Amino acid sequence: MSEPLLQVDDLQVAIGPADIVRGVSFAVAPGETLGIVGESGSGKTMTVLAATGLLDAPGRRISGSSLLRTTSGEAVQLTGASPRTLRRVHGGQIGFVFQDPSTSLNPMLTIGRQIEESLEAHRGLTRRAARSKATELLDAVGIPQPEQRVDSYPHQLSGGQRQRAMIAIALACDPGLLIADEPTTALDVTTQAQIIDLVRELQSARGTAVVWISHDLGVIGQVADDVLVMATGSVVEHRPITEVYYHPQHDYTRQLLAARPRLGKTAGPPPADPDADVLLEVRNLDVRFPVATPSGRSMVHAVNDVSFEIRRGTTTALVGESGSGKSTIANVLTGLLPPRAGTAELGTLDLLHARRADRRRIAMVFQDPFASLDPRRSVADALTEPLRTHGLGGDSAASREERAIELLEQVGLPAEFRLRYPHELSGGQRQRVSIARALALEPEIIILDEATASLDVSVQATVLDLLAELQKSKGLTYLFIAHDLAIVQQMSHNVLVLRDGVVVEAADAETLFADPIHDYTKMLLAAIPPDAPRAAPGGFSEDPATDR
Amino acid sequence: MSAESLTVEPATTRFSSWRLLASNPVTVASIVVLALIIAVALLAPWLAPYGANEINVANQLQPPSAEHWFGTDDLGRDIFSRVILAAGTSLTIAFAAVGFALLVGGGIGIVSGYFGGPTDAVLMRVVDIMFAFPVLLLALAIVAIFQPGIPTTIIAIGVVYTPIFARVARGSALSVRTSPFVQVSQTMGTPAVSILGRHVLPNISGPLIVQTSLSLAFAILSEAALSFLGLGVQPPDPSWGGMIFTAQGFLGLAWWMAIFPGAAIFVTALAFNLVGDGLRDVLDPRQRTIIEARRTA
Question: Do A428 and B4 count as a contact with CB atoms less than 8 A apart?
C-alpha cells in the first residue's frame, strides 16, 4: 500500500455520557476504497464525521488522531483543527456525498452555482472559468445536456441526477479524498448500480481515495478494497473485502453475511393451496393526482388500469421503483386515497365504498416503524385502539388488555412491553408492535408497505421470519410491497412488476425469477449488486446477470 | 449486539420534561414568582391592610411609608391594598380570556388542519379577517357594543387572541395529520373524533401550551391597556391598568401611583413569558436533546 492519504489512529468520540466511537483506526491510500459497514447505531457515520472534523453535536468529546496528507504534501491534523483549517480542507481536499440528494442540495441555487461556489473558494477561478468547469463536471458525472442542466434547480432533476450532481460538487476541486455516506441508500436499485459504476470510473481516472459507508454488504462488496466492520462503536473486523466475504473472522460479520437477503439463495415461501378462493379482486384501478407544474396544473397518472387478484393464504408482491405506484395502490385499498375508476372487492365487500366498520377486514403495516406509532401513546394503547373501535377483544378494559398481551406474544414480545412507549423500543420491536396492531383487527388481508425496508438486515430477517410464521399459523393473506427483489423472492407466491403505474409483468414468483419476460424486470434483476464481491477472483463479470 | 435483543433499557426518560424544566434556574424562579402572585391574588382579601375603596381624604397622595407601603392615591386609598386586590381581577381576566381563545381558536385550528379542504378554506378565511383588524380596535369595538366591565373585557381579549391559537393549532395539526400513525388509525377505521382526541391533540399540545403561557403575559398587558383607556374594569373596582389611568393626572405629584401597578404588570407579564420560554425549550424534542447533551457534558 502506498503512503496513506488519511490516517486515523485510536479515534474516540463521546457525546454526553455515551461512548459513540471507541478506538477506531484505519488508513486509506490514493486510488483505494475503504468500505465501512455496520448496522444503525454502530457509529460508522460518527467515525467519519469526527475524523473529518465535521461532527458538530453539542457536548461532543473527540480524541485520537486523524492525519490528512494534502495535495501539496503537508500533513494536516483534523481532530481539534481550527474552523479555518477545516474550511481550507473541506471541499478542496475532501469531498462529501451524503445519503439524501434531495436535502443535501440547496433548493434555492442552480446546480451550476453550487459547483462553482467551491471552485471559486478553493481554486480561485473566475465566475466564467468556474462555469465552464462546472459544465465539464456535469458531463463527467453523466448528466445529459450539461450546458442546459447547469442552470437547472435541484427539483428539476431526478433523484439519480441529483446524486450525480452531488458527486460533481464533491469532486469539483479534485479532492484527494471522497467521503460517501450511504450515497445510494435513497436511490432505486437501477440508479444505485449506475452511481456505483460512476464513482469507480471517476476514482480510477483521478486516483481518488474513497471512504464508502453503507449498511449494505452487497454494495460494499462492489466498491471496497478493504472493509471495516463496525458494531456498537468498535471495529470488529478490518480486512480485505474478499477475506471478509469468504473467511469472516468475527461472529458479528458472519451474522451480517448470513442475514442479508440474497437473490436465489433463500427458499421461497411454502407452496400455497392453488385452489384457494380469490380473496381480493382488483379491476381496472386508475388513480390520478393533480400536481402544480410551471405551466399550470397537470395530472399525474399514478396507477393506470391495474388489475390483479389475490388468493386466500398467499403472498402477492408489488415490486417496482419509486414512483411506480406501489404505495398508491395500497393507499387506495385502505381508503386513504380515492381512485378515479376501478373496483376492488374483498370477498363480497366493495372495498372502495366500505363502511368504517368493514375497514378492519384489511390492515396495513407501514414502512417507518418510528413514525407509525404515536409517540405519546403506550404500546397497550396502540393495540387496544382497534379493539375498542371495532368492539373486538371483549367489552371490558381488562379483557382488551389480556388480548393485547396475547397479541404481543404472537409477535414474540413479552407482556411487560405493553407499558412501554415507542421511544423505549428498538426499530424491530416497533415493527413487531405495528404487526401486532394489524393482527388486532383480525383482518383477512394485511398490506405490508415496505414493512422491513428501514430495518437493519439482522432485524429484517427476524421480522420476515415472524411474518412467514404468522402466515402459516393463521392462514394470513399478504399484499407485500417491496423494492428489494431478494426479499420478494423469499416471501412471495406471486409477483406484479409495476412501472409508471402500469403492470408490466405478472407471474408466479418461481417463473418470474427464473425466466423474466419483460425488459424492465430483467433490468431490475440485473441491477442488484451481485453476490460475490467485485474484487473476488472471477467475482465480477461484465454481465452481472450471468453471475447467478 | 443485534438491535433486536429484548432487553432494551426500560423507561428512564418518561418524566424528564419536568426534571429538565426544574433544572433551568430562570424557569424555576419565574414559576416561584408566578405561584407567589397567584397566592397573593387568592389571599388578597385577608392580606390587604385596607379595603380597596376605603377613602381617606385626609391621607391623600401620601408617599410610601410604614403605614402605606406603596403610598396612597388622590382619594387617600392605600395603593398596596389596591394592587394586591387588583391582582385577582387581572389574573381572572387573563386566564379566562386566554382559556376562551385556547378553546375556540384551538378547536377551529385542529378541525381546520385535520380535515383540510373546504372546511379549512372557510375557517381560515374567517381567521384571516380577524387577524386583519388592529388588536385594540377589535377589542374597542367589542367593548363598545356591549357594556364595559369584566365579562366584556374577557370576551374582547379572548376574541382578539382566538386567531393566534387557531393558526398555531392548525399548523401543528396539519403536520400531525399526514404522519403515518394517524394514517394507521384512519386505515383501521378509528372515528375522526377519536383520532383527534387521542392522537392529534396530545401531539400538538406542546406548541399550544407555550402559546398559552405567552398569551397570558400579553393578556395581562391588554387588560391593562383596555382599563387604561377606560374600557375595561370600571372604577371604583381596582385594576392595574385602571390605576395607571388614574395616575397619569398626578405623575408629577405622586410617582408611586403609577410605578407600583406598573411594576405588578411588568413582573407578572415577565414571569409568564419566562415560563413560556422554559416550556418551549423542554417541549421541543430537538431543543430537549441539545439541553440534555449540554447538561451531561
Answer: yes
Q: Which residues of B touch A328 (CB under 8 A)?
A: none
Q: What is the C-alpha separation between B204 and B218, in angstroms, rounded? A: 22
Residue B86 scores a pLDDT above 50? yes
Residue-level pLDDT at A381 = 92
Q: What is the mean pLDDT of residues A129-137?
A: 92
CA-to-CA distance for A524 and A484, rounded, in angstroms? 10
Which of B161, B164, B159 lies closest to B143 in space, CA to CA? B159
Quick one: pLDDT at residue A323?
79
% of chain A beyond a pLDDT of 70: 97
Residue A99 and residue A147 in contact, taking contact as beta carbons nearer than 8 Å: no
In chain A, domain spans: 278-527
How far from the centroid of its chain's Cα atoms is residue A513's Cα? 22
pLDDT per residue as tens digits for the range B210-238? 899 889 888 888 888 888 887 888 888 88
> Which residue among B2, B190, B290 sits closest to A389, beta carbon to beta carbon?
B190
d(CA A74, CA B45): 80
- What digits encode the pLDDT tens for the residues B104-136? 999 999 999 999 889 999 999 999 998 888 777
Q: Is the pLDDT of residue B23 over 80?
A: no
Q: What are phi and psi of B22, to 5 degrees?
A: -70, -20
Rounded alpha-carbon distances, angstroms, from residue A220 to A75, A193, B87: 28, 12, 69
Do B297 and A420 make contact, defined as CB atoms within 8 angstroms? no
Amino acid at site B293: A
Q: Where are the domains of chain B?
A: 48-270
Q: Which three cell numbers stand for residue A356?
A: 368504517
Rounding to the nearest 10 degrees, give the CA dihedral for residues B268, B271, B273, B277: -170
- Give the architecture-level CATH label for domain B48-270: Orthogonal Bundle (1.10)
Which pairs with CB-CB distance under 8 Å and at least 24 residues apart come from A284-287? Answer: A284/A341, A284/A342, A284/A343, A285/A329, A285/A332, A285/A339, A285/A341, A285/A342, A285/A343, A285/A344, A286/A339, A286/A340, A286/A341, A286/A342, A287/A325, A287/A328, A287/A329, A287/A332, A287/A337, A287/A339, A287/A340, A287/A501
Q: Do B191 and A456 touch (CB under 8 A)?
A: no
Interface pTM (ipTM) of the complex? 0.75
User: Which strands form A296-311's sheet, in the order they lie side by side?
Assistant: A296-311, A278-293, A341-346, A349-350
CA distance linking residue A209 with residue A34, whole number of Å: 8
Mean pLDDT of chain A: 88
Partnered with residue A499 across adjacent β-strands are A502
Is the confidence at residue B12, as pLDDT, over 50? no
User: Architecture of domain A278-527 in CATH?
Assistant: 3-Layer(aba) Sandwich (3.40)
Q: Which residues are CB-neighbours of B270 under 8 A, at least 6 positions away?
A: B30, B217
Per-residue model confidence as pLDDT tens digits over B146-156: 888 888 889 98
Alpha helices in A207-324 (DSSP H): 217-223, 241-246, 251-259
Residues in A closer than 8 angstroms to B296, CB to CB, are 16-17, 59
Minimal Cβ distance to B4: which of A335, A336, A462:
A462
Give the largest CA-CA distance in chain B. 85
Is the pLDDT at A160 greater than 70? The verdict is yes
Angstroms from B215 CA to nearest CA on chain A: 25
Q: Could you give the angle at the alpha carbon of B30 between the alpha carbons of B29 and B35, nearest 5°?
A: 100
Q: Which of B3, B194, B203 sits opposite A374 (nearest CB)?
A: B203
